[in-house]
Specification:
InterPro entries: Epimerase_deHydtase, Hopanoid-assoc_sugar_epimerase, NAD(P)-bd_dom_sf, NAD(P)-dependent_oxidoreduct. With 363 residues, the chain is an alpha/beta fold. It has 11 helices and 13 strands.
Length: 363
């Protein structure tokens, strides 16, 4: 397949452009790298932020997207577009051919699926096959976007890091297990084949261009709209999506192959995150804390209805099980080795709320 170069000329409802135009990038850097840098998942929340940061650094981009993907997040970016899918490894050879660097950001990211097999195939086997295709094509360096979901959790409020012990049986949820297995595959390929890959583990990105939105973005949106009546006692690490993107590029420039780097921001109790979000949005924060045991029957019914009607549940039993442990993390290693410097999490939430409002998702 021949990649397309595109920027502004798009079909109105996503999909690949039919009338391709050649454009010249005139961004922050006056040095354009001739060998393209591939970004998978570039139409998504994190992937599009990575693509924008790479352009600012002077990279020539090739963006891999699924057939029929929504191109909203990359509509204004001059880049090559190549069709590819994690569940179709035969598409990888064209995507990586001639590339100097690869950023593998694509993943099937859902907290609930009726059938876990396709997610496991895409996230684990798709990642393994893409890594092999990139190495066989002579790619110089790979940045693999894993997740803190693949890391160990202490859970009592103690901060975890890259060295916190983790075992698959303790990883809750099909998405998290798929990311754990994919990360283990990348590490195995580094050991056994000398794969030139650096791993980054974003925490919970928040910010602009969350078009779906992501599960966390939906939570922020609901709270900002005054639709969050209660919360559970848990904790998360919040980071601006653009800082996560910057961390990806720093990992390319300064990271060590086979090493993991947490790209996080600030740790928050969920109660405090909602209070901050409500303050930014000018609404009342949720004040009722519900124990997981109260919400459990709701999750059971929600999952049952979802299987019947084919829509994702707003709460699941796995989500409640995950909430028993506070997902607090340290980015000290990335700060020390990469020069990673995330901004205050309030900026991330403020940017997300402003973007939701500007795009008609928040009244």
């Amino acid at each position: 397949m021949v990649p397309h170069r595109f920027a502004a000329n798009r079909p109105p409802h996503g999909g690949f452009p039919r009338d391709v135009r050649l454009l010249t990038y005139t961004g922050a850097s006056d040095r354009i790298m001739t060998a393209p840098t591939l970004v998978t998942g570039a139409t998504g929340f994190v992937g599009s932020a990575v693509a924008r940061t790479l352009l600012q650094r002077g990279h020539s981009l090739r963006l891999m997207a699924r057939k029929g993907a929504d191109l909203t997040n990359i509509r204004d970016l001059p880049a090559e577009l190549v069709e590819g899918d994690l569940s179709a490894p035969a598409t990888f050879a064209d995507a990586v051919r001639g590339c100097r660097y690869v950023f593998h950001v694509a993943a099937d990211y859902r907290l609930w699926v009726p059938d876990p097999a396709p997610m496991m195939t895409a996230n684990v086997e798709g990642t393994r096959r893409l890594m092999l295709a990139a190495q066989d094509a002579g790619v110089e360096r790979i940045v693999y976007c894993s997740s803190v979901a693949a890391l160990g959790l202490i859970g009592d409020g103690t901060v975890s890091d890259e060295d916190t012990p983790v075992h698959e049986h303790a990883v809750i949820g099909i998405y998290k297990r798929s990311k754990y297995r994919a990360e283990q595959e990348v590490l195995r390929l580094v050991r056994e084949r000398g794969l030139p890959a650096v791993i980054v583990n974003p925490s919970t990105p928040v910010g602009p261009r969350d078009i779906k939105p992501t599960p966390t973005g939906q939570m922020i949106l609901d709270c900002a709209a005054g639709r969050m009546p209660a919360y559970v006692d848990t904790g998360v690490n919040i980071v601006h999506v653009d800082d996560v993107a910057e961390g990806h590029v720093l990992a390319l420039e300064r990271g060590r192959a086979g090493e993991k780097y947490i790209l996080g921001g600030q740790n928050f109790l969920l109660r405090d995150l909602f209070a901050m979000t409500a303050d930014i949005a000018g609404v009342r924060p949720p004040r009722v804390s519900l124990p997981q045991s109260v919400i459990w029957p709701v999750a059971v019914v929600s999952e049952w209805l979802s299987r019947g009607f084919g829509i994702a549940p707003r709460v699941t039993r796995e989500m409640l099980a995950m909430s028993h442990k506070k997902m607090f993390f340290s980015s000290a290693k990335a700060e020390r080795e990469l020069g990673y410097a995330p901004r205050p999490a309030r900026d991330a939430v403020a940017d997300a709320v402003a973007w939701f409002r500007q795009n008609g998702m928040l009244g």
